[in-house]
Amino acid sequence: xxxxxxxxxxxxxxxxxxxxxxxxxxxxxxxxxxxxxxxxxxxxxxxxxxxxxxxxxxxxxxxxxxxxxxxxxxxxxxxxxxxxxxxxxxxxxxxxxxxxxxxxxxxxxxxxxxxxxxxxxxxxxxxxxxxxxxxxxxxxxxxxxxxxxxxxxxxxxxxxxxxxxxxxxxxxxxxxxxxxxxxxxxxxxxxxxxxxxxxxxxxxxxxxxxxxxxxxxxxxxxxxxxxxxxxxxxxxxxxxxxxxxxxxxxxxxxxxx
Length: 257
Ligand SMILES: Nc1ncnc2c1ncn2[C@@H]1O[C@H](COP(=O)(O)OP(=O)(O)OP(=O)(O)O)[C@@H](O)[C@H]1O
Ligand SMILES: [Mg+2]
Hints:
Elements: E1 2-9, E2 19-26, E3 31-35, H1 42-49, E4 57-62, E5 65-66, H2 72-80, E6 82-86, H3 97-102, H4 111-116, H5 121-133, H6 149-161, E7 167-171, H7 179-196, E8 199-203, H8 207-213, E9 216-221, E10 224-230, H9 236-243, H10 247-254
Parallel strand pairs: 3-8, 3-9, 6-7, 7-8
Antiparallel strand pairs: 1-2, 1-4, 4-5, 9-10
Helix pairs in contact: 5-6, 6-7
This protein binds adenosine-5'-triphosphate and magnesium ion.
């Protein structure tokens, strides 16, 4: 489904690569969690998969298509099938829940329609269905600004589902939420992805949490993959390898969820 080959990324103003020769394969319907200390490259990797960042070198195949090569239009179409969930929700706060969810359809409509802000009947039906899926039916006309963090992330999930994605990438989707909401949102994402056959790749900070939701754990340190395997195979040695025996090992490895 996703094949990352020899991916390297260096930010313009840096003298060290943020991603160093990353090769990873993900199967359809797989659920994987990326862990690693702050600055290890988790967000950079996820952003490259979605081409929010143009990597310095390497290849990323989605199915048979290399999204880093070829016409931009085609890449855009493939990207449309990748949903992205962010820590800070990325919603238009002063617009309604429904409008935000409908925005998930924008890239699938003609630019003419988009300018007029018009959505088809099918778009509205899909938006309503997805609001129900995330448990926000009845909130259509509420302004996003007035919602709680957990509700905002539900809106973002409904918006992503309107893309009818094959893949959902979630960059620390629950970092801004309290522990009860963290679990609720992760359960929701997991259920939706399993039921709809969506490949799910998330970055998460807390280890216990990562093990609970990622059948596969990918450990990053300093731009490299230092662990890739089943969560039950992750040993204490691996954890030290990922986080280093620093404060972070205590913070992420011992406490949390
Ligand atoms: N826009 C940028 N410009 C320059 N360097 C960047 C930029 N974004 C990230 N970096 C650097 O790239 C490296 C990887 O950062 P990245 O944000 O991918 O880490 P992360 O694992 O997501 O960290 P966190 O857990 O704090 O979110 C770090 O050294 C960081 O300083
Ligand atoms: Mg990050």
